[in-house]
Design goal:
Layout (H helix, E strand, L loop, with lengths): L1 H24 L3 E9 L4 H20 L5 E9 L4 H14 L4 E3 L4 H14 L3 E3 L15 E3 L8 H11 L5 E5 L2 H5 L1 H10 L8 E3 L5 H12 L5 E5 L2 H14 L7 E4 L1 H4 L7 H6 L4 E2 L8 H9 L1
Parallel strand pairs: 1-2, 1-3, 3-4, 4-5, 6-7, 6-8, 8-9, 9-10
Helix pairs in contact: 1-2, 3-4, 5-7, 8-9
């Protein structure tokens, strides 16, 4: 998955920086790095495992290096409050050189302010909302593509098929809303209208999702762009198939927020998504990547 690649990349970059610092001082330097992730989510566990793998590989082949990265892990419990509490705990109890994480854009928004005040870099490999860049913090490092990088590909797809009206369907939080201004601008450039924006609550149940889908069925627009977490996306498409919106005549486009996780979804969900078009970053399959995937 793309997030696995970025987690490994950011760790290697961070490691190289502190290694050069230690070599200049010619002494062993412990480098305390906090890791704040949702440990009950497979993405969080995967990211942590990648970091440990990179750490082990590096010191196996560079035993003479003076730095020793010491990881201090904390569970954000999949909440903004949990991520903030974990970061505060790290900053108060341990002298952190940096904090890797958190997983979501909503969590990152709060941690960026903490990092700014403590002058500790916050490095995230999965907080993708473009709105985080507007905070203009010198202590926030985004080690992944932000969601605005997808809008040109989406608009090119829509232009190629000649669709003139599009309805975005997105989750009602910072992650979902962050891409919308960029998407709207990209669609305007190709003269595609956005007659309606469908906003789904992050904890919407099946009945609420169905109600919104029935509303969309009464409109003329039949082209939809879906940007939401995969868990909510699974519910949306299962319900869309149930109400008859996955048949011929409807067009569904998903961002990489869902596309990156298709391989983890149940077969029943994949079956409900037949015909959906997905946008996803391309990571060249080079030798080192292949070797890493074999070990994984």
């Amino acid at each position: 998955p793309t997030q696995l690649f970025f987690s490994l990349f950011l760790f290697l970059s961070l490691r190289n920086f502190f290694t050069e610092m230690a070599m200049a001082q010619n002494t062993t330097i412990p480098v305390n790095v906090g890791v704040v992730l949702d440990m009950d989510k497979w993405v969080g566990r995967m990211g942590l495992r990648c970091i440990y793998m990179a750490l082990s590989d590096f010191y196996d082949s560079h035993a003479h290096y003076n730095t020793r990265l010491v990881l201090h892990t904390r569970d954000s419990n999949n909440t903004v409050v949990g991520a903030a509490a974990a970061a505060i705990d790290l900053l108060k109890d341990v002298e952190m050189q940096a904090i890797i994480g958190p997983r979501t854009s909503m969590q990152a928004n709060f941690l960026i302010n903490l990092g700014e005040n403590a002058q500790v870099p916050i490095i995230s490999f999965s907080a993708t909302s473009p709105s985080l860049s507007s905070l203009r913090s010198a202590y926030f490092v985004r080690a992944c593509l932000n969601d605005s990088s997808q809008v040109k590909a989406i608009s090119s797809l829509i232009q190629a098929f000649g669709w003139k009206a599009v309805v975005p369907i997105y989750v009602d939080n910072e992650f979902g809303e962050g891409i919308i201004p960029y998407l709207t601008d990209a669609l305007q450039e190709i003269d595609a209208r956005v007659p309606y924006r469908s906003v789904i609550h992050h904890s919407a149940d099946d009945e609420e999702i169905a109600a919104e889908l029935y509303k969309l069925m009464t409109m003329q627009t039949r082209v939809f762009i879906v940007h939401m977490p995969p868990t909510l996306g699974c519910k949306l498409f299962s319900k869309a198939k149930e109400v008859g919106m996955m048949r011929e005549g409807y067009v569904w486009i998903i961002t990489d927020a869902i596309t990156n996780f298709l391989s983890t979804m149940d077969h029943s969900v994949i079956d409900s998504m037949q015909g959906v078009l997905g946008i996803k970053p391309h990571v060249p399959r080079r030798k080192r990547l292949e070797e890493f995937l074999i070990r994984w």
